[in-house]
Amino acid sequence: MVSGGTSLVATVSVTAAPLLIFVFLFAQISFSSSYLNPRLLHQSSTGNNNYLTTEPHWFNQTLDHFSPYDHRQFQQRYFEYLDHFRSPNGPIFLNICGESSCNGIANDYLSVLAKKFGAAIVSPEHRYYGKSSPFELHTTENLRYLSSKQALFDLAAFRQFYQESLNKKLNRSNVENPWFVFGISYSGALSAWFRLKFPHLTCGSLSSSGVVLAVHNFTEFDQQIGISAGPECKAALQEVTQLVEEGLNSNRTAVKSAFGASELTIDGDFLYFLADAAVTAFQYGNPDKLCSPLVEAKNAGQDLVDAYAAYVKDHFNSVGTYNQENLKNTASGSSDRLWWFQVCSEVAYFQVAPANDSIRSSKVDTSYHLDLCKNVFGDDVYPEVDETNLYYGGTKIAGTKIVFTNGSQDPWRHASKQTSSTEMPSYIVTCDNCGHGTDLRGCPQSPLSIEGDAKRCSSPDAVNKVRQQVSEHIDLWLSECRNDARGWSSA
């Protein structure tokens, strides 16, 4: 039994010795034909045709990497794709799954890179998410092992496990394939942090839209939405917010009902839901779906609230995600509670209204977020932002051989590293619909563009230019890795 009275799931070994070897995202970001909560930073996949593989594999992962006494383990799921692998000495691409269920390896631009470099792709599921949870119940007490620090050691353990498994299959020993780590969003941050903390285990890292900066008052998020929207659409969105706030004062039941959000009894939850509905359009490369009908309605003198409600109901069916009562549900299976725990305990990323010229309601402020954390997880859970940035460095991360990429329209890019250096180059993919993870996903990000096709980006050349630069860094760093005296094998 663990503290709190909840036992480990049946697949956990409570007597086995701890792993002696340790193992981040693609932020494997998977995809969906519908939008998901931008709080989660990414989307989930549906439909096996969007995957390179959905066949699961399992290995025993250590529950607590920081305890010399706790030897418990749990079953962690992973996926592998070997069709392009140049056996025996080709590179291995560690594609990090992030803050949702990992149901396979998505068929995005990483598959093109794997074919080019003759690489295997392996992708472990993040602890607690999907089928890789150590516990049957996600009580606050049971979530104490859910953190980026534990996840990074998971990746190190997995990396060592997989390398040794490959060596055993090839009847060899003490051989290291060159490894390269990929991630988008939170997984992009994990990718950068993995290279930072375990530089001996990877030749380099791609941090695509990697949110390496933990931040309490993320006002730049809303400001970027205004820039990405443009003057007309921004003005329309601001008017919608004003009209909705007035409606909440006069008839909140009718206003919430118009958006299909009657279950959101807390006004802050409802206002956050409305703000995120707009965010998805820019974050995932579909600005016209939002702005075109809204600007047309405004110019025609039509009811803007009705126009926005129509957009929300057509493109953002995620009301339950914003209901704090749902977030209190401790049954395993939902990513929402898990990600909010990481937000409330470690990184914050609180998307709050700026003091001036805001699009979202001023009621979506730091107090709203902190009250949510307290209501859902209790008084003792608080985001240790300063500690997180001290541990990893924030945007002053002092790593090497990490390439950062961001989409020009993505509000999350302001939590990423956007300044470039020789050891850590940074690139902005600039176009009207270049959002979250465009370099790997293409445009738009939902639904999934097979092999990250850039043809639907407003500037395919801009995407392809950054992809070429990323490919050159991968090529250089893999080559340097093979030539290193540490004993990497030669391809």
From TrEMBL:
MF terms per GO, please? Answer: dipeptidyl-peptidase activity; serine-type exopeptidase activity
Keywords of the record: Glycoprotein, Hydrolase, Protease, Signal
Instruction: Tell me the InterPro entries matching this sequence.
Output: AB_hydrolase_fold, Peptidase_S28
Does this UniProt record's set of keywords contain Glycoprotein? yes
**What GO biological process terms does the UniProt entry carry, in alphabetical order?**
proteolysis
> Family assignment?
Belongs to the peptidase S28 family.
Q: Which PANTHER family match?
A: PROTEASE S28 PRO-X CARBOXYPEPTIDASE-RELATED, THYMUS-SPECIFIC SERINE PROTEASE
Please state what the protein is called: Probable serine protease EDA2
Organism field: Spinacia oleracea (Spinach)
